[in-house]
């Protein structure tokens, strides 16, 4: 009996161990959760076609519109004018830029003027006797003759006899000889042709200036020009007089210029056309680098989108019933960050920002701004 009881207990222990093992094994099994389908939230725009201004970006350096390179046409010692001949020195129109010592040459001019005066004075008695009708005008000419001023123009000769008489005495040739000397004497003093600033000085006071030597450069610092190169497709679109917005590199200062000239020929090497933009401003300096935005033309029934939204096959994503779809579009202009396209019907909802991994048929959810949830946005 005892053996029977022990056998039954052994069987029960074995069965219990089996059930306990199965229970422990079954408790370690975890059910794999069903992955939840993620719906991406996207930014969208509702399209409204309108007229888009095509703006062409360009850049260049400012150059003074009026510039004078100063050269010596005579020889002598550079004398002080009261202002230091140094870069950055400003002058008003008519002020002396450079004065070259002309004392020796001035003496020869005065000698020639004196000879002319004496020659005319010597014929006055003959004029009184032979040509009394012209005596008065020559007497008035002599009275107005000032050795310290420019030689006045000879009186007009009204008859052939007077002309032969005056010319025969060598007065006309002496007069033009004096005027030639006076003209050369004026080259010893160079005056500012306009108000501006000296940008280069190659001589200093006391230097010996030689004929043909470059002395410096002088510019008008109130008006500048910027040369820009544009694609030949815009040759017929740019017009003289159009306004141009200009900005510096830091985009902290903006200026308003205008197109003053457009080159009539296209560069055969680069296939570009050059345009010149005039701009004024107190803060402008020659050589300053500026970026220009030229209004080339206006494209009707078009929209402007980011270039990242345009697919390689000239297509864009649209949202239809919370699903992405693809439509064909017609690009008409590209800039660095934007693209002007046509062919998108009004009211079409497109992506406002590209999303990674997008594909046609992808389920999306449009982002709703609480403040503007009831407003549709334009692509522009």
Automatic annotation (TrEMBL):
SUPFAM superfamilies: HlyD-like secretion proteins (SSF111369). Residues 67-215 form the Multidrug resistance protein MdtA-like barrel-sandwich hybrid domain. InterPro entries: MdtA-like_BSH. Pfam families: BSH_RND. PANTHER family: HLYD FAMILY OF SECRETION PROTEINS (PTHR30469:SF15), MULTIDRUG RESISTANCE PROTEIN MDTA (PTHR30469). This is Efflux RND transporter periplasmic adaptor subunit. It comes from Winogradskyella maritima. The lineage of its organism: Bacteria, Pseudomonadati, Bacteroidota, Flavobacteriia, Flavobacteriales.
């Amino acid at each position: 009996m005892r053996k029977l009881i022990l056998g039954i207990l052994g069987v029960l222990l074995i069965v219990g161990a089996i059930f306990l093992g199965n229970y422990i094994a079954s408790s370690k099994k975890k059910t794999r959760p069903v992955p939840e389908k993620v719906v991406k939230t996207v930014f969208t725009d509702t399209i409204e076609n309108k007229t888009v201004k095509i703006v062409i970006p360009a850049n260049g350096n400012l150059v003074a519109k009026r510039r004078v390179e100063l050269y010596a046409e005579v020889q002598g010692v550079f004398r002080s004018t009261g202002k230091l001949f140094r870069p950055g020195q400003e002058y008003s129109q008519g002020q002396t830029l450079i004065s070259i010592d002309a004392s020796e040459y001035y003496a020869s001019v005065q000698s020639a003027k004196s000879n002319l005066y004496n020659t005319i004075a010597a014929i006055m008695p003959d004029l009184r006797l032979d040509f009394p009708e012209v005596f008065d005008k020559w007497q008035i000419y002599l009275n107005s003759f000032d050795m310290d001023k420019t030689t006045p123009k000879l009186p007009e000769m009204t008859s052939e006899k007077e002309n032969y008489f005056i010319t025969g005495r060598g007065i006309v040739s002496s007069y033009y000889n004096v005027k030639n000397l006076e003209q050369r004497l004026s080259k010893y003093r160079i005056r500012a042709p306009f108000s501006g600033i000296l940008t280069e000085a190659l001589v200093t006071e006391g230097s010996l200036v030689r004929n043909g030597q470059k002395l410096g450069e002088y510019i008008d610092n109130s008006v500048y020009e910027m040369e820009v190169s544009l694609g030949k497709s815009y040759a017929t679109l740019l017009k003289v007089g159009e306004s141009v917005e200009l900005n510096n590199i830091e985009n902290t200062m903006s200026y308003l210029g205008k197109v003053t000239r457009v080159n009539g020929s296209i560069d055969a090497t680069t296939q570009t056309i050059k345009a010149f933009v005039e701009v004024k401003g107190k803060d402008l300096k020659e050589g300053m680098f500026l970026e220009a935005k030229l209004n080339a033309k206006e494209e009707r029934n078009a929209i402007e989108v980011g270039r990242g939204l345009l697919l390689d096959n000239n297509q864009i994503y649209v949202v239809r019933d919370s699903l992405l779809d693809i439509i064909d579009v017609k690009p008409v202009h590209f800039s660095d960050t934007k693209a002007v396209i046509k062919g998108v019907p009004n009211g079409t909802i497109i992506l406002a920002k590209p999303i990674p991994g997008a594909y046609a048929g992808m389920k999306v959810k449009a982002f709703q701004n609480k403040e503007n949830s009831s407003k549709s946005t334009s692509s522009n």
